[in-house]
Task: structure prediction
Amino acid sequence: MKFFIDTANLEQIKEAKELGILDGVTTNPSLMAKEGISGTANVERHYRAICEMVDGDISAEVISTDFKGMVEEGKRLAGIAENIVVKVPIIKDGVKALAWFTENGISTNCTLVFSTAQAILAAKAGATYVSPFIGRVDDTNWDGMSLIREMAEVYAIQGFDTEILAASIRNSRHIVQAALNGADVVTCPLSSILGMLNHPLTNIGLEKFLADHKKANEVSSN
Ligand code: E4P
Result:
């Protein structure tokens, strides 16, 4: 399973990269706005900085909602760096744009996916990744993980190549469940990635190992 970080924050991307487990980055217009990035030139400069930091796929989302606008914007984004993946919402013109990008050799991430029906359309249009939003599904009292499971089953039956990218991850348990239910990729906030490290027995065990080591060395040096 690939690990992406879900942020436009350069410090957090650097921290995740230093862990040595980072395969890519996803962003969206809200995450860019959170970093105070606005204006085409600044947005493109920021994407370039991320692409230079991380070797894997970097999702950059289009703002346009019409076919022509999405294609123009996507071409410009794809021109920033070889590892840019154009992120397109699952709307009617989005499907057309996905198919256009597929035909023209541009990688895509189909976003705002909340049903297996949408995921089938994304795969038919040749999307490189499809992003089901787990946390937002859970927020509405539905089960985000059963969506991943159903999508994975349908993709396997049909032999679709599109990779399932579990998005809207809220905690480290979500990551484990996404892995268990067949996600190819998870994109997570840094807090969820670091949350995977937490176990009280690890802390207690380490404290004891270090205390025993210290005691043994005090004894041998006397
Ligand atoms: C990433 O591709 C998505 O845009 C992101 O995971 C959405 O997360 P949120 O539901 O926490 O905003």
Q: What stands out?
A: The chain has a mean pLDDT of 97. The first strand starts at residue 2 and ends at 6. The pocket of erythose-4-phosphate is lined by residues 6, 26, 28, 111, 131, 133, 135-136, 167-168, 187 (CB under 6 Å). The two ends are 51 Å apart (CA to CA).
